[in-house]
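Field: COMPLEX_INPUT
Field: COMPONENT_COUNT = two
Field: RESIDUE_TOTAL = 949
Field: MODE = joint
Values follow.
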Amino acid sequence: MTYEEVGLTAEEFTHICDQMGRVPNDLELGLFGVLWSEHCSYKSSKNLLAWLPHDGPAVVQGPGENAGVVQLDDKVHVAFKVESHNHPSYVEPVQGAATGVGGILRDIVAMGARPVALADSLRFGTDDPSQHLQHAVVEGVGAYGNAIGIPTVTGEVGYGAVYDKNPLVNVMAVGLLPAQRKISARGARPGSYLLLVGQPTGRDGIHGASLLASQDFGEGTEHMRPTVQVGDPFMGKLLMEATLAAVETGLLDAVQDLGAAGLTSAIAELVYRSQVGAQVWLDDVPCREPHMTPYEIMLSETQERMLLIVAPHHLEAIEAIMNHWELPHRVIGEVTEEPLLVIGTRDNPRQAVLPPEILAGACPLKPVPANGRDKGRQLVPSMPAFKPLTLEREWGLNVLGAPECKSRAPIYQRYDSMILTNTVWGPDHPLAVLRVKDSTAGLAIAVRGPGRYAALDPYSGGMAAVARVISLLATQGAQPLGLTDGINAGNPDREDVFQDLMALLAGIADASQALGVPVTGGNVSLHNETSGHPIWPTAVIGAVGRHSCPLEPVPDAPMAAGMDILWVGPEDLGLGGSIFESLYSPRLTPYPRANLTQLAEVLAWVTSLARTAPGIALRTIEEGGLFVAMSRAFIKAPEKLGITVKADDPVVEWLFSEAVGQFLIFSTPESTARLLEESPKSVTVRVVGQTTLDGALQFRAHKTLHYSREELERTFAQGYRG
Amino acid sequence: MRVGVISFPGSNCDDDTLNALAALGVEGVPLWYQQTELPPVDRLILPGGFSYGDYLRSGALAAQAPIMASVEQAIATQAMPVLGICNGFQILCERGLLPGALRPNVSGEFLCTWETLRVVSVPQGFVGLKTGDLLRMPIAHHEGAFAVEPGFLSTLFDQGQVFLQYSDPDGQVHALTNPNGSVANIAGISQGSVTGLMPHPERAMAQYLGSVDGRRFLKAWLGEEDQ
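Field: COMPLEX_OUTPUT
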């Protein structure tokens, strides 16, 4: 076997030989190949991720573990993370998406947390095959989440021709654990057993991480189909229950789930983090097929497997739990004092002998230029702004009916959003609000990944992705506890793609720093390009916030006639990156850059309003701009209510700009005066309209645009057909 | 009052059901499918979920589980009140304890929505429900299209076995209010002391979760007048 065959470069191979002091044998080389793949090593992104703030008052566990953990209150902690399954979902959409859900749920379980929620962020192309792909991906997400019994409580979807052959499937999972529970991949002690639990190991998913997810697509991906794993949510449910029951006993040293690169990654990470070694007996690994080679056993990505580390005198108790759940399980090795990972059979015990600190800790990282972070900030593309001079009634309907703006019900109704009975606000709201049964506090969960905003100015897009989720939390007065980042981009070996990636990360880092919210972990998916066409750099950001009144969310629509409507927003309202622009402009222009200092003040004020102002409703302005936000608030309001708005100049920008930091506030006239008085000086707030009893939505500009409830409801539900 | 809640491998609404019972001040007794004898319980619930991953056919494998023989016997000898919710309903049909079968939704897709249910005939033992009452409860299933053999539908209606129909918010039952392709919009049926329904009462226990009608439903099944 050569280093190229396992996906390594000549430099990396030399580095391995230098570090080892010898040439690795074939099995060892194969293990290096997967662990030093982009997917497992983060070699191109790790130095960029170091820019992100990781510390905060609520952070219990930052990046580097299976998931981040933050503190909800004294008794309850929250584990959460986003993960992508982009490449597998293109090759085999149902199973690719399903195993993505299974994988992120196992990450949460490996932290000793019981999953309580899923959120999906999907990107599809605009061609015909993309519609079939979407149908199958949604089927896959639902098939796993519904069957294992974890609700999909919120999500988002977006479209662009750049995703035609590179759909994005990012799923975030959130779990809860008691504050005193401490289980991770760090506690393995010498003498303890490696207990492999779950599905017997098969020949599925070999090279899933190293070849499928770490290379670009070219002509024909058919031959890659066998590299996609097959999910079994039934086994996943048993494994989840059994693992959580085992963790609850307090008898385990450590837990590590098996995901990308299977046993290789699980054992290497475990012994590396625990600073121990291990002897693995391949003849004891339960296999689905006879005659599997050591290489196949170590690289298989068979799903629904978990590695439990248990001291010999506790083995019986743990095995009893596995027997109750009827899960196959077997001791496949033991933890050793000497930090060496030794893999073999009883006949030939030392077929691979590798120091974990080289295997899991010595992959050379792509260097980042010293001015890398600044460079992203400075790269402001200059293009003439799109400024339409007329205003047509039809524009509003066309924007509201656009795939990004219209109702997501055809997707989220295929997901169980209510199981576990915590969902106070589900997917028909812009963010989810969940009660937590063991706490008076609840969870606010939001996910956004505005790829179009990053298309021309990735720095601006990165900032916006963070700003969008924090804005959503602000409308509920929720305290952001942490963020998880799902980075999706093209081939990092291309200079232009890497520049974009740097700018994107700089934007995320600057925004999360300015807004004071730590990033506690996430996922990087690179090589999202087919035949040399990369996707827009797409940062999917998930946020978890502490909601102090989860049973009474702040309404997102007006409740009565006679309420004032206030608009909050920045002075610069460009149409760059907006849905309106994508429909009516011959070309895309850069997304308006946020002023982070001002944004932080707006968010602080909106958060305090949501917590203290009585009888208000709040909504952020997102895709489709003010027009869509107002329409959605109108559709949600009681049937007889109307809304009349006096449009500001420049009207089209004001109606359709998607610049972050824009909010709608619905307040009673009694509170409006105080609200305006108490608003910070740097924040622009204007009364722009009132709720009425005429049952229609009207915008008054130089002409009046009049929309009936029926046509807005129909357009929102079914799209606009002209 | 002690209510047994039977978990099969893959059941996933068992905890929600136990929580709902606790909220009503009723003792819920978790039962595992391998038990061959029932402990002393007054009633039984087969909760929702994906027993055996819905492999083969929803409910088909769980219907043959060891505990089901004792369930069958308790129904035959003591007229034990048994409630099947969603997958529990499918299991009861597969076991032959309720008539008919549940086929894949006509859309071919899983569906999770809020529905209005109209009471057609009140099953034996229910207290405080009457014909024409409306209940708002969610559904979440892939196989919920109730079907019966040709010619059997009128018998079901005549014998008062049709319990719930999907309706509009005003109680009108028509094709547009049929979410899944069930024959005659049927959402729930009964036979003697056995009742099955696709909607999830255990998810409609509080206004902040969308409805309190599940509370009303479960109290009616428990034989308690709702206050």
